[in-house]
Each structure stands twice: as structure tokens, then as C-alpha cells.
Amino acid sequence: MTEKTLLLWVDLKSSNSGGGVQPLFEKYFIVQVLDSTASASLASQNNEAAAICFDFDYPDLNGLDLLRSIRLKHPHLPVIMMTEQHSESLAIWALRMRVWDFIVKPMDATSAEQEIRQLEEQIHDHCHWEEVLVNGTQAPQIPEEARFYNGSQEERALTPAISYIQQHFTEKITEEQMACLCRMRPFQFSRNFKKHCGVTFQEFVQRTRIEEAMRMLQNPNMTILDVALNVGFRDQSYFTRVFKKHIGIAPKAYRDNRNMSREGNETLQENLELFGAVNER
């Protein structure tokens, strides 16, 4: 029987949801579970682990910074990153940090078994995962969206809704749906959302759509109607009114201004800076 190797399991979940696969790993590895306090020392010490698993629900700045620090300190260790957050930018960040695998939970038993077999093969066939250190000065920046998950317990209770909005803003999303997702009453959800995000739920959805519309308007081959439909508006005139409310000018004027010099565009620039400042909250 092959001797089991050590797998460090860094538990950074803020709730008990989304788990279930750790016992499967324990069949093949000696799993040592560490909380955020115990795992913080990993970035400054050597260890005999064969691999490290970071188990998140919704990663915050501190958790991602810890993962990055450990990758820089121990480039030879395969790192598995598990998360409930469906995020393209987070997946790209993980890829650039050269994590061994990025897994979106929930994960079924069959997929977990396949993951374990591949990890065992990696450990058996290679002495080191990375021979060359990732340059700390060139390490990718942590995704901006992680700022939403770095707060009080009350704030973190809203993270399922924020993550869902960021991934499904093109669809119809109701406040009642999100309150249920966060296990809150609608009134409680509405009050907490405004308190911690600085805007109402509907304003946040609109701003998320407008932010994507601003990016799409840089494509000269897309019509205004195409942009409106692609960001979740079903009516071009309504899209134009909402866009003008937030940015100060209509979508067509915004597109035209993007092709002009910055001179004479002080009003537009002020509106864009204000819009960005609200989105940073």
C-alpha cells in the first residue's frame, strides 16, 4: 500500500456551505486542516507537504493575498483553489498565479476522485511543481471584486448576491430572489445592501450593466441596440435613459467622445470619475 503524503487544507470559508469533498481527499492523503490564523505562517516557513488546497466560499482580499504569498514562497507545491464564486476574472488570476487547478464548487464525488488521481500522478511523477519562482514584482493583482468580500460578517452575508449579480446581470434579477439567496427577509436584505454597498440593489444592478455597456461601446461594430440587449436591457430608449442618468450623456455621445481628444471633455471625465468612485465602494 502506498504511503500517504501530507496535504495541507487551508479552510478560509466564512460559512459551512459548499463543502463535502474533504473526506474523499482524506482517503488518499494525510489531510491537515488549517484555519486562517494557522495558515498565515505558511508563507514564511518551510514544510513537508506534498500539496496545498485553499478552500474558499467567496475569496476576500486577505485570503487571496495569503494564497499569493504562499505561491511565491513555495513554488514547488501544487496549489488547488476551491471556490463557490463563478468569476472569470478570478479564474484568470488563478491561472496567472500558476495554481495547479481552479475548482468551482459544488464538486461531485466523481470529479473529486478524478482530481485526486491527477494530483497523485503529479506528485508521483514530478519532484517539483515549479522550478522557477514567480517574480513577486510581476505577480498579478488580486481581482478588484474581492473587495466586496473583505468586511464584517454582515457584509459577507451579502456576497452570494453580489457574486450572482456579477455573473447574471444580463438576466432578470429580483430583490426577493437575492434576499432568499442570502437567507434574509427582503426588507433586511434591502437595508443591509444599501448600508454596505452604498447604493440600492436596483442601482447596483444598473451600474453593473452600465459598466459592461461602457466596455462594449468601444467596439464600433456593435450597435447601441446590440449593447443594450447584451447587458440586460430589453428596450433601447430605456437603456439610453439609464446610461445618461449615470454617465451624463447618451450612449452614442459617449462612443463619439471616446474617439475624441480629452480636451473639452471635462464634464464627461467628471461623471466617469464619480461613477467609478461609487463602484469602488
Structure commentary:
By secondary structure, this protein is an alpha/beta fold. It has helices spanning 22-26, 36-39, 61-73, 88-96, 109-125, 153-156, 159-168, 175-181, 186-197, 201-216, 224-230, 236-247, 251-258, 266-279, and strands spanning 5-11, 29-34, 51-55, 79-83, 101-104. A 5-stranded parallel β-sheet has the order 2-1-3-4-5. Strand 1, helix 1 and strand 2 form a beta-alpha-beta unit. Helix 8 crosses helix 9 (186-197). The longest helix is centred in the middle third of the chain and has 17 residues, at 109-125.
Give the termini separation. 54 Å
How does the helix and strand content classify structurally? Answer: alpha/beta
In DSSP terms (H or I, runs of 4 or more residues), the helix count works out at 14
- Rg: 22 Å
Helix content estimate: 40-55%
What percent of residues are in strands? 5-15%
Largest sheet: 5 strands, parallel
- Widest sheet: strand ordering: 2-1-3-4-5
How do the SSEs run, as a string of H and E? Answer: EHEHEHEHEHHHHHHHHHH
The overall average pLDDT, rounded, is 81
Total DSSP E strands: 5
Poorly predicted segments: 277-281
Shape: elongated
